[in-house]
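Ligand-bound model needed. thymidine-5'-phosphate.
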Amino acid sequence: MSRRRQIYEGKAKILYEGPEPGTLIQYFKDDATAFNAQKKGTISGKGVLNNRISEHVFTLLAGIGVPTHFIRRLNMREQLIRQAEIIPIEVVVRNVAAGSIVKRLGLEEGSQLPRTIIEYYYKDDALGDPMVADEHIACFGWASQEEMHDIADMAIRVNDFMCGLFAGIGIRLVDFKLEFGRVFENDYARVILADEISPDGCRLWDMATNEKLDKDRFRQDLGGEVEAYQEVARRLGLLPEGDTTVLDMEKHRKSRTKK
Ligand code: TMP
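Prediction:
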């Protein structure tokens, strides 16, 4: 394919060297994993949809003053981003009980939490991304107190904005995961939003039916993954009404591989 230098390959994305120093190209794969990669599969067309959805959300967030790594989309599966030193913490924001918190605390799935909760997980696949407290983050120097203050502040602002964005299209923002990175400007480090925001790392439920429009369709073997991601993109206004290009491409690919 290309002769660009690959910098990193993750479960759902690949990072390549960018055209200028301080930039990278983020390539969105169709690969899907769950339960720390114990379950693996592909959701054909997911990469294309996540590239578009993440572009859209990051652009809107930049518009309300949240600094992000996003520069511009390059093509169907790639976007140009600022190179950042990833802070090894997954920041999970929860509005409604679902997923691991339901099991951990014995809550009823779908119940509104009395207030929004922010949780931190240490990014380490070998350890299964364990939940950690601010104390661990400070003790082991994964991020400074000042950085954690900025991260919590941004996480709340992103949540407020995204709750409204999705409510406006009939979707309940149950929870989501964010990642942050450091960029250095004249010896001064600043925290920016990194990674992606897409149905891979969010729980999105249809407000009318509670239908899941996110990666839980894959995690729980519910089927209809691409259709769900496409529905999110369509409601965000990213696909013209009736546009089934991604699905058509997929049907075409399947019919070719069957022969
Ligand atoms: P959880 O309920 O499994 O802890 O997940 C909370 C949210 O974070 C959910 O929207 C899915 C997202 N998430 C990721 O994006 N990556 C992960 O590795 C995990 C465990 C969760």
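The radius of gyration is 18 Å.
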